[in-house]
Every structure is written in structure tokens, then in C-alpha cells.
Amino acid sequence: MHNLKGILAQHWQYSEFRPLQEEIMQSVLNGxxxxxxxxxxxxxxxxxxxxxxxxxxxxxxxxxxIALMKDQIANLKKRGIRALAIHAGMTxxxxxxxxxxAVYGNxxxxxxSPERLSSEILLARIAxxxxxxxxxxxxxxxxxxxxxxxxxxxNIADIRELIPDVPIMALTASATPKVKEDIQVRLNFSKHxxxxxxxxxxxxxxxxVRRTDDKMGKVMQALNAVAGTAIIxxxxxxxxxxVADLLGRKGISSTFYHxxxxxxxxxxRQEDWLNNKVRVMVCTNAFGxxxxxPDVRTVxxxxxxxxxxxxxQEAGRGGRDGKHAFALMLFNQYNEDEINYRLxxxxxxxxxxxxxxxxxxxxxxxxxxAGEGESFLLDTTPFIxxxxxxxxxxxxxxxxxxxxxxxxxxEAIFMPSRLKFVCSKEDLYKFQIANKKFDPFIKLLLxxxxxxxxxxxxxxxxxxxxxxxxxxxxxxxxxxFFKKAGLIEYLPQTDxxxxxxxxxxxxxxxxxxxxxxxxxxxTVFEEQLKAILGYALNDNKCRSQYILSxxxxxxxxxxxxxxxCKEGAKSEDAEAGIFAAIEATLKTGPQSSLDTLSRLTQYxxxxxxxxxxxxxxxxxxxxxDDNRLTWLE
Length: 633
Known about the structure:
Blueprint: H1 2-12, H2 21-29, E1 34-37, H3 44-54, E2 58-62, H4 66-78, E3 83-86, H5 92-104, E4 109-112, H6 120-126, E5 131-136, H7 156-162, E6 168-172, H8 177-186, E7 194-197, E8 205-211, H9 215-225, E9 229-233, H10 237-249, E10 254-257, H11 263-274, E11 280-283, E12 296-301, H12 308-315, E13 325-331, H13 333-346, H14 350-363, E14 375-377, H15 380-386, H16 391-403, E15 407-409, E16 413-415, E17 417-421, H17 425-434, H18 439-448, E18 457-459, H19 461-468, H20 472-484, E19 488-491, E20 494-496, E21 498-501, H21 515-537, H22 543-550, H23 563-586, H24 593-599, H25 605-617, E22 621-623, E23 629-631
Parallel strand pairs: 1-6, 1-7, 2-4, 2-5, 3-4, 5-6, 8-13, 9-11, 9-12, 10-11, 12-13
Antiparallel strand pairs: 14-21, 15-21, 16-20, 17-18, 17-19, 22-23
Helix pairs in contact: 1-3, 2-3, 5-6, 13-16, 13-21, 14-16, 19-20, 23-25
């Protein structure tokens, strides 16, 4: 472990590991398959990164979130660690070059999105790699009982067969006992496997639920009562702007964030919030993954989340510094009624699913039998409009098609413009001689960017335009001309969600939608909705205990600072006061219940009668033959 601490200090500048990190690392170094369940902010990435740095070879990391994947790679590169990724949005040539680098390029980490796991090229290249560890992030995605089941994860078992002696580390921030067991089965864990689970308790967070029709009023009340940075989660993109505007009019600095904004705007707003230029971030669940702002004091959910797992992770973005924070959920009758609406739209009929699948192929102008392994930009707004589709049911259908292993959907991916010379240096020189007006620009390209003949090089048209004294449109025209002339491969910037066809497009009449599978997914979804609804409606069990018992921690203590615990404490104090008043009046002598009530008019009549009944049960009061109350010493 001394060597691991040296790696931790050298690359991450930490002197000590967090709880369970050492044990998890030692487990894989001993060759054991390992499941690590650490809450959000618990340092999961280091659990595989540090031992992978210690062992010779390359670590393969499977993760479904491309934005998080890119952040991880950027962070590793800052620390002098070589890492690369293969995901949707890359060309076949880029993927091929990345695999070559993984085999021959002395890289330490290869990040893969799950839809790439079934490709023949991957399986062939892995056999040539010296793999030291297989890390599976967001491991709950492999379980059909999980809240974000992704069938592509099931292909990880095939990779294991190629590297049978390599340990696997599965990581997740949340897993119920059922999901925990399923992860180990699906990943073919060995009999010597180890499971490490940190407690899900967040003792510094006060969980609060308020049932109200005036949600905006409660938001203002919370923000005025608790100083500091806040996150407000809502369900729709439109609502992010509406709430942010309302807060602004109330004098509270805020901004909004959702996946439909441009990459530049999302980054700018995120940075403004991280640097405390604005106090409140109003967002959809597209915001937060990979964000580790320590001083968030309040996390507010204005709408009911779909499951306890999502709520726990999002609420857990508060209080990362260990100081007190509040997680407030706002809830009303409309949210209860909405449950059935979500069930209906998330699971459309087989006919509706087939219709969406057929429309998607037509929208992308993809022929039947084509498209396997190809990725396409998917702007859902014109897609839905052009084919007159129902938006909620369309998203539900796309999710089911993904769960059938037909397509894979990604979040909005920012891919910078990339450029690569595909001609020989001799042919380029001949082109410059024959086209002298382009010669200065080509020389500028070669001076500005290194490796243009070897790899796809990211660049910004606007920066190149400034250096060349041209407009952005001129740059785009030049590069398009060079591409047509066969000199370069030019890939303009994109910032949209993408769909990847995992199988060639099928004819609609031969498409088979497994009704039983859809029904099973609907049942899981319904159970998850009931669990989060139960959390909201619960009025007697400690909020923290409710969450912990959901994740299998059945013997936890009451937190004593959620709304239930505090209301209970108030109730106990009030009850103790009534007990004392009853004792005082009965010690003057036996009396009827009516006499006692007439002497205790400062208390609610029902509360006094309830206290009398309880004192009788406790043996503190007895009833005489003529039904008078007597205090027992």
C-alpha cells in the first residue's frame, strides 16, 4: 500500500485514502473481482485509477456517460497520465486509430461507451492488449432491476472471456440488495469476489418534504432561510428558464441549465455557478454528473423524481464539504396524479414503438439492412414534429428500443471540429504549387497544428480565422474545398444527442418487440415510482431511515434532523407537557375526564384525551368504580 500512496501523492496530491479505498484497491491487486458501492462523492474513480497505475498494462473502463468520460480523460491528462476514449460520434478511422494507440501507444486507460462492446474490432484488439484491470462504472446499468438498465452492458461478459485472468472492478453509487446481487451474477464474478459498501447515510443532510400547491413560495422561503449555493431540479427544459426568471425578479441571482443549450453556454453557466458568480442553478437532471462543488447548502426538487436512486444522488450533491445542508422535496396532488401519466407514456404499445422505429430510420434516411455500428446526430425536436409524433411516448419508445439492443442513445455530445491530412506530403506540395492562393493558408495550418498527417487534430474555426485574417465562413469554405480535393478529412463541430444503430435497420413488419420484457420493465419502473412516492407521502418514518432501508441498511438510527424527526420531537415535547399538566391536576384528587378537560383548556381537547388513554395504558392513571381518574404514585 506504500507504493499506492506514492502514486496517489505523485499524481493526485493526496496524502491519505478515503474510507474503503485502500481495501478496494488491495482486493483487485490480489486478483479478486470486486464490487465497490460508494455514495456520490466517495472517490470511486481513484479506486481503479490508482491500482491501474501501479500495475503494468492498460485499464479498460466501461462507462455510459460520454461527458463524464471526457472529463475523466482531461483530468488524467492534466496529471500526466495517458488516456483515450472510444464512443459515439467518432469516425471509423478515429476508432481504428484509438485502438492502435491502446495496443501500441503506452496508454494507461481506455474508456469505452457500452455500445462499442459488441464490435468485432474491439474483441480483436483486446486480445492484443496487455489489460491489467477491467473497470465497470455505473455498474447498476447491467441489472434489469436497476433504475437505468442498459442491455449493452451485458456484453461485458464476452470481454471477460478474452481476458479470463484479469480482475474486474464494478463501481456504482447506489444499488439495492437485489441489484447488488444481479451485478455480480451478470459480470460472472468469481467465488473469491469481494463486496465493499460504504453506508448510504449522509448525517449532515436534513431531508425535508413539503406538501404544497405554492411551490415557488416554498422555494423562496427555503432560499431566504438558508444562505449559500443552491441547486433546484425540475423536470422540463422550459421550467428551468421559468423558475430562474422568477428568482431573478425576486433578487436572487440564478441561471438555468439543460441538455438543449449549446456546449459553450452550458460550460459558461456551469463555471459561473461553480465560481459563485450566480447563487442558484435551476436545471434538469442533465446537470450535476461529475460536479463536485463542496459548498452547496440546499438542493431542492420541485418535481417528483422517478426513483429513490436518482433522488439520493442528486440530493447528495449538497454538503460535500461535510457541513450542514438541506435536501427539500416539494410535492402536491398533481405529482400523485402524474404517476399514471408517466407509466403510460414511458411504456407505449408495441405498435407505437414500431412506428417510432420506422420513423427514425426514415428521418435518418437509412435503408433497411444498413446502419449497423453507425452513429447519427438526432435533433429530436424536428424529428417529432416532422412525423407528428407524441413527444413523451417517443422518448419512451426510444428507451425501449435501446433496451431491446437495437439502438443506443447518448446525451448531447460536444465534439470539436477535427482535421487530418489524408494525402501524402508530396501530393500536398503539388497542390500548393498548382494553387498558390491557398499556399499561405496551408502553411499556417502546418505551423499551428502538429501531427496533422498522423491524427485527427481538434481546432476552432474562429481562432484559425483570426490568425489567417479571414472570416469563419472563409475557413469553412477553404476546408470544404480541400476535403473535396481529397487533401483532408474535415469534421465540423457538433453538439447534439446521437443515436447509434447496434443492429442494421430492420423492416418494420419484421420488428419484434418483446411484450413480456416491456411488461417486466414497466413493473420495475412502477415499483420505483411507488418507492419515491412512498418517501414523499411518508409521515412517520425518519427520512434518512427510509432511504437507507431502501438500499438494504435496515438497522440505522434516526437522523434526528429531518422534518419527520423534528416534528416527532416537537410532538414528544408537547405530549410531555400535557402529561405533566394531567399529573398536576390529578394530584389534587380523583376527578372525571370532564373535570380534567375543564381544568386544561390551554390544550387541545383531543390531545388531552389521547394523553389520558396513554397514561392509563402506561399504568400511571387508574379508573375508580365511578369512572374517576386517579393518579398512581
